[in-house]
Amino acid sequence: MIHEGLPTQLPDIDPDETHDWIDSFDSMVDERGRERARYVMLRLLERAREMNVGVPALRSTDYINTIPPEREPWFPGDEEAERRIRAFIRWNAAVMVSSANRKGLEVGGHIATYQSSASLYEVGFNHFFQGKDAPGGGDQIYIQGHASPGIYSRAYLEGRLSEQQLYRFRQEVQHGTGQGLPSYPHPRLMPDFWEFPTVSMGLTGINSIYQARFNRYLQNRGIKDTDNQHVWAFLGDGEMAEPESLGAIRVAAREELDNLTWVINCNLQQLDGPVTGNGKIIQELEANFRGAGWNVIKVVWGREWDQLLARDVDGVLVNKMNATPDGDFQTYSVEDGGYVRESFFGGDPRLRAMVEHMSDQQIQKLPRGGHDYRKVYAAFDAAKKHVGQPTVILAKTIKGWTIDALEGKNATHQMKKLTPEDLKKFRDRLYLPISDRDLERSYEETGAAPFFHPGEKSPEIDYMMERRRQLGGSVPRRVLRAKPLTLPADKVYADLKKGSGKNSVASTMAVVRLLKDWMKDPEIGKRLVPIAPDEYRTFGMDAMFPSAKVYNPGGQRYESVDRKLLLSYKESTQGQMLHEGISEAGAMASATAAGSAYSTHGEHMIPFYIFYSMFGFQRTGDSIWAMADQLARGFLIGATAGRTTLTGEGLQHADGHSPLLATTNPAIKHYDPAFAYEISHIMQTGLEQMYGSTEEHPDGENVIYYLTVYNEPVPQPAEPEDVDVEGILKGIHKVSTGEGDGPRVQLLASGVGFPWAQEAARILREDWGVVADTWSVTSWNELARDAVASEQWNLMHPGEPQRTAYVADKLAGSQGPFLAVSDFMAAVPLQIARWVPGDYCVLGADGFGFADTRPAARRFFNIDAESVVVRTLQALADAGEIDPAQVEKAFAQYRIDDPTAVAGRKQEGGDA
Asked: Transketolase-like C-terminal domain: which residues (predicted)?
């Protein structure tokens, strides 16, 4: 039996020895007390873990610092110099936000987050964070989004930003592009400064884990030595309620990512109130992380508590700390020392006696550990040296620390302005040499307080710059140093262009075929990173298992159940394929790490993330947005796309709208190809655009290619000799021109919908005397974007020759009404309606999906060939070109209102 992780019914092979141990323990309790016995037990458990005895860790420990004073390392810095530097940065950060909210501007900002975490960051900047010039290429540092004013303020002291830029916080265009500062860490908006977008709360956690994992992936595959690089992630305690924050912590423990440290700023406050007023968030998080297998370091109390704890021989103080809820601790942070004496220490005479030598002011100033530089340094040092586990540092702080008007108040997050009197008190607390007269003059002239700089030659600036020189340069900083790639020649795309002959091939298989060919390339082959969330076999990629293998840092220490099969599951330390299990969020984090490796590591890596299209932009759209912000590149493959194609799977698997979601992201280029030869041109161009070099983009472009492909086998024609490559890439090209006389129509279709248009063209010609031209629309999104861009250019260039939309030019002169159809909702093709030069009608799969055969589903949504025929005839009747009776006849003949009419139709393969 296992009870709370401990074996309780193992046979006692030496009862006498066991009895001796128990007697010894009993004596210690009797002679030294329960607290001493408890301490010894905790040390034994710690030692057992170090010796790999296999006893599980405790889920939580006392509400005190993990590292006792006697185990703190020597502090190597000048604490007084660093205190002054922190004061300068604190002041400038607060003034920056307050200035941004002066009357007539009022663009917002956040003061309190950085004030609570200043010591946490400054310990890192002065002693731990390695810059890009450090051996190995430097650390990756995820900075909490709301703390950005403090990071800008440090950069100002370092000479990286100007005072004028600080005054223009959150004013990015009105003074000229690049003359202001973005609100949060946004690499796309400040590409030489920020590396990681972090303000979408929760994504920092999961992205930092998979970044640390990707570092090990690069190391194990022999692409880059990342052994000297460390990933630091700063998060808030309120942020840990986001599912993504804790959702992947077991991955970090399972893969023993000791190159990862999380620093959670536990100021006990969310945006509008306590994180957990009736509980203890630090204890809750400790239990979560210990249970997941992390090394946990708590930094709860500052050094002034050490003497009190040393006198706590019977554990009454520790017990009081354990029993006091966070809501009370927040109250203590805003009350005076007399209140704290009565409320916290007054309930027990032993506690009251413990502080009788202290004044109320001394009690009021008893600090939290996250503000104590030496306590924080000890935690960082222990985290960096810890082996075999990721580390989380839980640092207790006060939100708005050092600003009397803000400290600890529930409304702190929303308080953005400081009055002159608030700032005078703040200045005095920081001991800054700014006179009342200078403050008042600045308010009169600018409406805000002045920034403070001690001078470029001051001892503080010399100190901080020397520390950064020793650590490899300023951070954060984003650099481009990846060597150009030699991309595959045209011949690698030849097979896709040949077509499939008499066979039917799904477009998903065509994409995978090209991936396999790319992976054989001597230059880019090893740089491809296939990523899938537990669906490699669904997408026909199991053939890659024996050669590419699935990445596992521990290798494969078991015999696979399918080991005797040719396509057996194979894992390897050097494996190339990232198999993320059932976690689209984790897969996206891997894609982001791989797609930005050209900047974080100076190594081009090419993510190829393939997934159920419904679980891409819908489930992880926020992560894709952050991927774009991080200037990552790569291929996202929305396989099993379409509302009716994934037969049998039902409502939540039926993607009818991902192109619409994709169009909201300016970095995403979406294509919905119908043919393998279209895929070859699109993917070749994508590879060249993202990883090639042009005069305009010598380092490639920061875009992401999203292809929706299908699991339905369809005939794949060979590429025509006169193929319109430009049309394929811009979004539309003509496939066939109808022959004969009679009313003429234009049928536009994308993806798996093209065979319906093709079949409708045949029926229209043979049964109704209507001639149809067919067009493959490879991208409704790109056509719409081009059209909007043309109109925007015309708006900004009056008096110059006007531009027209590509789709309007392409369709100009085409006869008859235009009918569009796809396996997506009607809003997808409706994007181009304004620019189609004629009557335009659309058929789409609007509504919830469901499980049935493809013919039944397409008849239900009225997007099948017969529905296209009836809608086309109706458009011709509306235009007066045919008798409306023909429409009634066709409607009755095809029964497009009745899915039972196609109950007997067979379909070919391609389920999930």
From this structure: 731-864
Asked whether residue 367 carries a pLDDT value surpassing 50, the answer given is yes
Helix, strand, coil shares of the chain, percent, nearest 5, are 45, 10, 45
* Rg, Å, the chain Cα set: 33
- Count CB atoms within 10 A of the CB of residue 646: 28
Q: Are strands 550-551 and 732-736 parallel, antiparallel or unpaired?
A: unpaired
* 3-class secondary-structure state, position 300: coil
Phi, psi (rounded to 5 degrees) for 586: -65, -40
Alpha helices in 101-190 (DSSP H): 112-127, 148-157, 163-167
In the block, tokens 């620093």 appear at 263
Give the span between the Cα atoms of 193 and 196, in whole angstroms. Answer: 10
CB 331 within 8 A of CB 269: no
What count of Cα atoms within 13 Å lies in the side-chain half-sphere of residue 814?
Answer: 28
For residue 6, the cross-strand partners are 3
Indicate the pLDDT class of residue 269, thresholds 50, 70 and 90.
Answer: confident
Q: What does the pLDDT look like over 832-864, one tens digit per residue?
A: 999 999 999 999 999 999 999 999 999 999 999
Confidence class for position 415, pLDDT limits 50, 70, 90: low
Return d(Cα 602, Cα 614) in angstroms, integer: 33
What's the whole-number mean pLDDT along residues 543-550?
Answer: 91
pLDDT at residue 648 tops 50: yes
Pairing of strands 818-821, 840-843: parallel
**Which pLDDT score, from 0 to 100, does residue 103 have?**
85
CA–CA separation, 825 vs 843, rounded Å?
8
Which string of DSSP letters, residue by residue, matches 367-430? Answer: PBGGG-HHHHHHHHHHHHH--SS-EEEEEE--TTTT-TTTTT-GGGGG-----HHHHHHHHHHH
Bridge-based pairing of strands 231-236 and 140-142 is parallel
Q: Which residue has the higher pLDDT, 492 or 6?
A: 492
The helix/strand/coil state of 734 is: strand
Are 349 and 287 contacting, i.e. CB atoms less than 8 angstroms apart?
Answer: no
Triad 97, 98, 101: Cα angle to 5°? 90
CA dist., res. 259 & res. 593, Å (int)? 15
Judge whether 780 and 831 are in contact, CB under 8 Å: yes
pLDDT more than 90, % of the chain:
81
Among the listed residues 649, 648, 128, the one whose alpha carbon sits nearest the alpha carbon of residue 379: 128
Question: Mean pLDDT, to the nearest integer, of 163-182?
Answer: 94
